[in-house]
Amino acid sequence: MKLDVKTLEAGAAGTVDVSDAIFGLEPRVDIIHRVVQWQLAKRQQGTHQAKSRGEINRTTHKLGNQKGGGTARHGSRKAGIFVGGGKAFGPRFRSHETSLNKKVRALGLRFAISSKVKSSELIILDKAEMKAAKTKDVKALFEKLGLVNALIIDGATVNDAFAKAARNVFNIDVLPVQGINVYDILRRKNLVLTKAAVVALEARFK
Question: What confidence score (pLDDT) does residue 60 get?
Fold first, then answer.
């Protein structure tokens, strides 16, 4: 498959051959959904926790007589029915991470990239580099490319000036190729790959 390559100034820079196994697949929504669910579950902290009866520091003295008091038979102020008592079945510190086969995760990433190609929302750049970290300048370049909401993936390293200029632009994310993931691809309208990123992705999935 051949895709057009653009410069950062929105000019033509030829074409690039890309692998059909990464860019030409028919996306499967179920696989993509599984990977997104796995990603979101994995990043949850799971630090929510409520105290149980055993963790409450209150008296365990029996409140009153077993019979004749006219109230329920309570043996401790730690019961969840009382204000300040332990929480019954409350949230506990735990990991939300689920297991997902490595091959399924890789397939989900390829499907996500292919979905951007199919919807004509993929842009290939010759390179993403700037001499000075000027947000005003990079916004003008994005306007020429028609980028309003985009994820930009560069090679193993991101040009420092470009990354600093772009980080102040709303709805624009810049990541090295190691950070590419299904969730970030789908949450942005356009996926922008540099030629270095394309080479790295093809080497990764070879």
Answer: 84
